[in-house]
Amino acid sequence: MEPTKPRFSYSEILNIAYNLRIILGKGRSGTVYHGLIDRTRVAVKLLSELSTPQAFQQFQTEARYCNDKTHMGLVYEFMFNGNLTARLSDKANVLTWEGRLQIAIDAAQGLQYLHQSCTPPIIHGDVKSANILLNETFQAKISDYGISRNFSADNGFAGTPGYLAPECAVNLDEPQSLNEKTDVYSFGIVLLEIITGQPVYSNTTEKIHIKEWVDSMLPEKGIESIVDPGLEGGFNINSVKKVVDIAMACGSTDPMQRPEMSKVVVDLTKCLETQLNPTKQSRNETELGNSIEIIV
Q1: Does 176 have pLDDT greater than 90?
Q2: Which of 34, 95, 162, 199 is buried most, with the most CB atoms less than 10 Å from its CB?
Q3: Terminal alpha carbon distance of the chain
Q4: What transmembrane ranges does the database entry give (predicted)?
Q5: Residue 66, strand partner residues
Q6: Average pLDDT over the chain, rounded to whole?
Q7: Residue 152: pLDDT over 50
Q8: Of the segments 61-70, 163-172, 222-231, which one has the largest average pLDDT value?
C-alpha cells in the first residue's frame, strides 16, 4: 500500500514557513517560501487558484500538501543551489562541464519518467532552466511539472517564450498541441544554455534567440566558438560536439525528427563517459577504424 502523503493545515504551513516572511521566488503558479520541518529545510509553495479539476487532481498527487479550500500549497525538499538559470549566469562559480552533463542527465531522466513511466503520461509544458532545481549535491530535479501549464490567464498554453516549440508558438490557445515532443524541443534549448552559458535571448538590443545564434556561429567558427568561455577549455571537445548534436536534434523544427527522452538520456550518458574517459573513447574509435579497414 502506498504511504499516506502528509497533509498540513494552513496554520501549520504558516508555522513551517515563518509566517511567510522569507520568499524564495515567485511564478505564474504561486509563491515559494523558505520553511523548516524538524530541523530540515523545505520550500513551501502556496498556489494560485487552480483553474481546472485536472489541475486540482494533479496537485493532490504531489508529495506533501495543504488544502483547506481557501489556501492550497505544496511542501518540497529545499533546493540549496537554486535553479539552473542562476547557476549558469554565476560567472564567479562556474559549473564544470562534467557537472553540467550530470545536471542535463538528471533533468532528462526526470522528463523520461514523466513521459514514459506515468499513466497517463505527463507533459511538463514549461521545460526551462529556471524550472530545473539543484539540491546541495547539485542533483537536478524538474519543478512545476503538470501544474505550470494550468495557470494561463485564458486557460490556454502557459509556456515560456524562447522555449516554446514552433508548433506551439503559433497555437498558444490550443493546449492539445502539447505532447512529449514539445517538451523535447524545450529541453534542447536548455542544452544550448548549458553548452554556451548564454541566456535564451541575448542581452543585446536585437534580443537574438540562442538557437539562432548557435546556427549562425557553427558553420564558420565551429564548436569551440559557442562553448561557455568560463569553462576555460576544461572539456573534451568530442563530448561537447555530441551534446551539440543532441541539442540540435531536440530543437528540430520538425517534431517527428526530435528524439524521445529515453534516447536523449542514453546519448547524454555516453557524452559524460567520453568526458570522464577520453582515452577509452579514442581507443574505441581507433578499434572501429581498424575494423573498417579489415572489412574493406
Answers
A1: no
A2: 95
A3: 60
A4: none
A5: 8, 73
A6: 83
A7: no
A8: 222-231
Helical (H) or strand (E) element with 125 = none
207 is in an annotated binding site: no
Dist CA 70 CA 46 (whole Å): 11
Would you say 228 and 155 are in contact if contact means Cβ atoms under 8 Å apart? no
In contact, 242 and 267? CB cutoff 8 Å: yes
C-beta of residue 273 within 8 angstroms of C-beta of residue 131: no
Question: What fold characterizes domain 84-283?
Answer: Transferase(Phosphotransferase); domain 1 (1.10.510)
Helix (H) or strand (E) run with residue 66 in it: strand 64-67
**C-alpha 225: how far from chain center:** 24
296: which residues sit within 8 A by CB, 6+ positions away?
none
Is residue 6 reached through a cis peptide bond, with omega within 30 degrees of 0 on the bond before it? no
Fold of the domain spanning 9-77: Phosphorylase Kinase; domain 1 (3.30.200)
Concatenated DSSP letters for 206-231? Answer: T--BHHHHHHHHHHHH-GGGTS-GGG
Q: What is the pLDDT of residues 236-265, one digit of tens each?
A: 999 999 999 999 999 999 999 999 999 999
The vertex-158 CA angle with 156 and 164, nearest 5°, equals: 115
* Cell numbers placing 2: 502506498
Q: Which long-range contacts (CB under 8 A, 24 or more apart) does 130-133 make?
A: 130/83, 130/84, 130/85, 130/160, 131/83, 132/83, 132/84, 132/103, 132/107, 132/190, 133/79, 133/82, 133/83, 133/84
C-alpha cell at 202: 541575448
245 is catalytic: no
Residue 151: per-residue pLDDT = 42
Q: pLDDT tens, 51-60?
A: 455 555 555 5
Check 126, 144, 183, 228 and give the catalytic one: 126
Would you say residue 12 has pLDDT above 60? yes
Give, for 86, the enclosing helix (H) or strand (E): helix 84-89
How far apart CA 200 and CA 208 sit, in angstroms, is 8
